Amino acid sequence: PQRRVPYKAVLTHGMTLDKTGKKMSKSLGNTLNPQKIINVHGADILRLWAASVDYTDDHRIGDEILKGVTDSYRKLRNSFRYMLGGLGDFTDDERIAVADMPELERYILHRLAELDSELKQHVNDFAFGPYMRAITAFMQEDLSAFFFDIRKDCLYCDAPDDPKRMAYRTVMDVLFHALTRYIAPVLCFTAEEIWQSRFPDEDDSIHLKEWPDFKALLFSGEGRGPSPEVSAQNNNQEMDSRLRGNDELVEKWETIRSARIAVTEAIEPLRREKTIRSSLEAEVVYPLADLPVEAAEFAELCIVANIDDGSNITVTKTDNHKCGRCWRLLPEVTEDGALCGRCAKVLA
């Protein structure tokens, strides 16, 4: 018979060193017991560290390094906790078609589609570090610091049947299904805990799911995602084009994100000086001429009281009163604690 190597691919890795970069040795007393790390931090922290290092070279491990890994893990976990809370009573009856969603939701679906393509490439390349860094960056920068931050007011204060809120929760459901699947190979215990928190079933598991099938999640109304058989049939299909925004939409929202960052940076000194306690108290002047969004919507996106057009960015504290329900400071609120028009209508 023809002789050949007994594998299709082989992956090698460097040595694990101590926190100072020295080779671990019993004689030096600098060895680490993985079981002790698991007892202190949990198995998923050790797994996340292993997936995060550059295994093509020697790599270090120590208490300070594990603290950094734990911080990244905690941020991921907090994002999933927010999604679990926001999707507590979500049903397929609330699902909104992509074509009927606001632009922000469609932009986030586009970013998710980009992430999905990037992660597939990392998997094919055995690039575990870039794989987890891409997930972490998306959840922290695109979701927690941007999408979730903007839409939390909509989630908590808009009417349950408001189309914008329904669209937000539809996208959040897609994010939940996709991201839980993405982290499962690395954070296997955390992913299972998250999945069972939302879909408790002894006969089900996140580890029985296939790679996200966005067509099924968005358009079939299947809340838990497709069966393995359906996924096997679809795993070679291109992602539905409706997930991807056109160039004009993407460019528009990249411009808005940059402008939002500029406003946030202008507000921060006043927060440090305690002139204002939150961005909701800020009235902003911003050069709006080249910004592809109306002032009122931009104020909502920046989570400020008001934005007016001007040649330079300036920030002052608003004189508006605070709504007792949504906490927005608006001209229509007659005194602190009274309701704004939206909240009065929702509670009527």
Automatic annotation (TrEMBL):
Q: One GO term of the cellular component aspect?
A: cytosol
Does the keyword section mention Ligase? yes
Q: Which GO terms describe its molecular function?
A: ATP binding; isoleucine-tRNA ligase activity; tRNA binding
Q: Does the keyword Nucleotide-binding apply?
A: yes
Which UniProt keywords are listed? Answer: Aminoacyl-tRNA synthetase, ATP-binding, Ligase, Nucleotide-binding, Protein biosynthesis
Extract one GO BP annotation from the record. Answer: isoleucyl-tRNA aminoacylation
Residues forming the Methionyl/Valyl/Leucyl/Isoleucyl-tRNA synthetase anticodon-binding domain are 105-285
Instruction: Please state every residue range assigned to the domain named Aminoacyl-tRNA synthetase class Ia.
Output: 4-61
* Record domain Zinc finger FPG/IleRS-type: where: 321-346
> EC no.?
6.1.1.5
Which is an annotated Pfam family here? tRNA-synt_1
Q: What is this protein called?
A: Isoleucyl-tRNA synthetase
Q: Whose protein is this, by species? A: hydrothermal vent metagenome
